Write the structure tokens for this entry.
Amino acid sequence: MKRIKVIVPVNTSIWNESILEIFEKNKDSDTLIDIVNITKGPEAIEQHYDEVWSELFTLREAEKAEVEGYDGIIIYCFGDPAVRAAKEKLRIPVVGIMEASIHFASLLGKRFSIITTRNEGKFATEDLLKLYGFEKKCVSIRALGIEVLNLVDRSRLRKAALETCRLAVEDDGADVLVFGCGSILGLREEISEILKLPVIEPGITALKICEDLIDVGLTHSKRAYPMPLNIKRQI
Amino acid sequence: MKRIKVIVPVNTSIWNESILEIFEKNKDSDTLIDIVNITKGPEAIEQHYDEVWSELFTLREAEKAEVEGYDGIIIYCFGDPAVRAAKEKLRIPVVGIMEASIHFASLLGKRFSIITTRNEGKFATEDLLKLYGFEKKCVSIRALGIEVLNLVDRSRLRKAALETCRLAVEDDGADVLVFGCGSILGLREEISEILKLPVIEPGITALKICEDLIDVGLTHSKRAYPMPLNIKRQI
Amino acid sequence: MKRIKVIVPVNTSIWNESILEIFEKNKDSDTLIDIVNITKGPEAIEQHYDEVWSELFTLREAEKAEVEGYDGIIIYCFGDPAVRAAKEKLRIPVVGIMEASIHFASLLGKRFSIITTRNEGKFATEDLLKLYGFEKKCVSIRALGIEVLNLVDRSRLRKAALETCRLAVEDDGADVLVFGCGSILGLREEISEILKLPVIEPGITALKICEDLIDVGLTHSKRAYPMPLNIKRQI
Amino acid sequence: MKRIKVIVPVNTSIWNESILEIFEKNKDSDTLIDIVNITKGPEAIEQHYDEVWSELFTLREAEKAEVEGYDGIIIYCFGDPAVRAAKEKLRIPVVGIMEASIHFASLLGKRFSIITTRNEGKFATEDLLKLYGFEKKCVSIRALGIEVLNLVDRSRLRKAALETCRLAVEDDGADVLVFGCGSILGLREEISEILKLPVIEPGITALKICEDLIDVGLTHSKRAYPMPLNIKRQI
Amino acid sequence: MKRIKVIVPVNTSIWNESILEIFEKNKDSDTLIDIVNITKGPEAIEQHYDEVWSELFTLREAEKAEVEGYDGIIIYCFGDPAVRAAKEKLRIPVVGIMEASIHFASLLGKRFSIITTRNEGKFATEDLLKLYGFEKKCVSIRALGIEVLNLVDRSRLRKAALETCRLAVEDDGADVLVFGCGSILGLREEISEILKLPVIEPGITALKICEDLIDVGLTHSKRAYPMPLNIKRQI
Amino acid sequence: MKRIKVIVPVNTSIWNESILEIFEKNKDSDTLIDIVNITKGPEAIEQHYDEVWSELFTLREAEKAEVEGYDGIIIYCFGDPAVRAAKEKLRIPVVGIMEASIHFASLLGKRFSIITTRNEGKFATEDLLKLYGFEKKCVSIRALGIEVLNLVDRSRLRKAALETCRLAVEDDGADVLVFGCGSILGLREEISEILKLPVIEPGITALKICEDLIDVGLTHSKRAYPMPLNIKRQI
């Protein structure tokens, strides 16, 4: 059995049900999923500022997972908040949904496009592309022009997503699309069908990678993510 | 059920049993593995010259897979021979063991090293790193100094691998190791234990990626790998 | 005297006469040109799939050249099929028309554009740009939208080429143009005149480089293209 | 008059006096310096883990500065914690000591080396080099092998620094040295004298850049660092 | 006191007064500015050709500065003519206005645009971006379409600059603008106000960097800019 | 007939005879070679400083060539002094020996090494590698430790070259060697024989490229090297 803890690193549970549904549908039969939120921090992560507000609480939640006996952790936000820090502290697999999704995109095509929420959020995504070394493979980051909390309006989301995805393909030459926010859900199959190319929901790819790592007994390198020193830290 | 055809693209079956053993151990319970070779081409793939000798026959074998009803294909040689061509012709997932392994390495650390067979084989590996866009993440390609067909001498292989892996870590600063040949088998766990870092057998990662793609209904983008034209071709 | 074998790596001789004409016009007085085709393989090379169909037969034809006493080989297809493999096996100069043309383009300007046949063929060209390290210098690959075998319709070719070249200059800022297919012939001077910039037919540049190497006694480095091992290979 | 708030983003004031001394010595006559710490968070910042522990409290301290009437802020840790987030929230100049120092290093030479504290801290520095686009100009990151809190042992620091700097110059070819931690102080002139090259204390460069920006009326672009949205955030 | 010699490397003094005005306004109170021209060479620097005409005379003028007792030199042309050579010969800080301005632009945003005079002058600017390693951070070089000597027509300049700057922001996504010629003066504040982003006059940034270096006792690395040999040279 | 003017851009004729000998041996039968020097400028070009001293006089000499009826120009110094400026002013082919040699090296192998004179001269070579976009292909620049004017001591040169070339191959993995100074002559064949790899004298490659361009009617793009404006210039 593979026990995976999914941390949705915002101070609201409004997305949990939809996420769970997707995860239940795509998980291996022997995988057990728990979804939690943070009880402090921001209600949504729109840019660097919110990441800083989220990361410490997310990290604390991740640290608890090892004690709780989980086999792996998914941090469910496209900004991969606290992922590097959690990898330093923990030995079980920690998977960010951004890193997982762009690795899949890289395997499936030659130039992917990321469909994000607002233009103001592009910078955090660009920074991760640099950190992960995928700047060249990402041909564009296109924004829907919708704030994260407004993504609950599914018909507005669907309309904007259809149009934005089409532009990514036609104007930017994307051959794979990645949704650049964990709250863009339920559109993968329709858009894939219409535009005739792979469309990636990042959460699903994180799930598969996390399961893979647990299955084959791999985890992140402690040479790349060394254990923190024992010094005083106060919250 | 996921039916996967594994093509070992050489004109010998001496590796099939070991490969099957690894695959049986790491596959999902609902995965069915068939391993085949090519009946022409080279006995081993050491460098570009052998790749050209292998690719046409490998491609033909891959093409048959879709007709035979397979859900996915793994081309089991670190040179990823005919992988791009097969992706053009086929709609089911085609996974090369090199591409799969370096994507995992990239997820698990920051600088990986590839342990290959002979110095003369480094150039083909370097070329793939360029094609896949991973030159910067690979800090070194180190050769065992053993021809592929001599890898059957397991004690010689083990000795060379231990020493070469150690140098990759100590001198090149690798934090993840990837075996750069599908015939370097059975050493992953020991070396991982000794050197305290993830060690990747490329076949296992290709297996997991292939299963993932089948599970979630993704395949390579036909926009990146367009269907070939209908023209005359003779063999 | 410099004896050069030109291999047109397709299973048709329809282009040989035009190629010979260009070569006769641009060769040194002491150069002797022989043009051959392959008797198997594809009728045209449009993308990766066709390259795999061509390469083994092209390689075999190249191998014969050294025995036949040639001083150099030109592989006459912009995909440079089997060029790396042939360099491994042979000691006489082997020149691909793509590699030769982009080196000239790089010398003559700062940003070149490649005019290719179909959009679906761009990927093979992009891959070579990565292998040769010229991604940054190539500002665009523009397609005529014509299949290779239809290039025999010279008036359609001329019309498409004039328009496509103009776009490469005006929209992409190209300062040198390279025809990205060996069958785009006879337009170099007219387009150069109209657009006021160097226009390169790749075959001519391969010819000059091949002659240069023979003249000054240089050939590709056997340290970069090591001799293949003696193992069993079957066709 | 230029009022600058220096935030030393750790939960200890042991470095403040030394920092103030350096700043008083190098500031413009009309600059007024205030140094503060954070009252929660970590005692030292050694790697990503500590950065996450520091950033939220550092950000809150930075936000107060604008209200307090400061003209500029320096975040005094080589990890530039919360610098991007603070630039999003604030309109007055926010300067990280890492970003300032490598820009000076880039102006003064062609390949700089960063002298950091422990090997485990290199990864955070490497990540910033990628974010700031200076990977190629930095030829090495060399560690003293001393934990931050042990840098108070000045004779141990001096000995290690002399040796490490020498290796950066002789083995890595550095022509400029940057101290990669705000607590490596008081050695700049001696090492510069011995090794005959510029040696940069990052705090000094941040001070000069901050003063320059205030003097000429420039600040970071709000197009690159957009104002955060008004959503609920809880600490 | 900081004595700085500003060399305007053209054979005309028509710009000196405007430059002096800007410098007087932005300099530290203890800085003393002298502005000189070269008495041979070109009247304006438009492209590489003019740079070669200017550099020897500019270098000679720079060499005199050290004898004359100056503490630093600014070479006031965006082509940074003779800057590398002067750094080799001299030990006092030598600052080019191009290098200084792009380092400031890099600190203030993520993608800057350079507003230059004519399209024909872009190549020299591109070359410097490569030499300084800032190709990726510069998203565009846009030309006003005005020859340097015609920049005296301030209303034509203002009109073209407003329009060109707007395009750099809207079409290229620039978040910082740099004027790519020392004679584009007096527009910084207005355009910054209109387009809501930092606008950089390169001369001002060179002035601040030069003052900074003198203030803190830094100069370019003699390991990167080694002293020329004593050989015969004739003018 | 192809009339080529070779400008040796130093104020001494001591190298002309050796250069002429090499050129006579490697030129086409219908090529006519004239070698000239500059009558002012430096006696040798060791680094940037000397380049500035040479370039204006070299440019003037190049400009005369078009009037004198030459079909092409070779600027015979590895710093390619005034090459870009001359290409702007002239329509006949202008070839620098550095640019020609590295393009040949790129065609013949995968990682070349440049053997230069003194460590202090490496920076100018590095800058050209950046301008020409070949940084990645050059694995090392190794210096002989001999000043240009001392290269007349052929036995000292030979001894240093043998040792330095060997290190480039064994320690840096070079597969092609390029002599990085036009005065390293007469060693090509011996070192090529000993080290079993192509060794390039840059002058020969410039000669062949210049002849090629004249033969096929190509010259540098005037879109990349636009004609200078008509403004006042004084010498």
Observations:
- Chain D has eight helices and ten strands.
- The mean pLDDT of chain D is 97.
- The domain at 2-96+204-216 of chain D is CATH 3.40.50.12500 (Rossmann fold).
- Chain D touches chain E through 41 residues (CB under 8 Å).
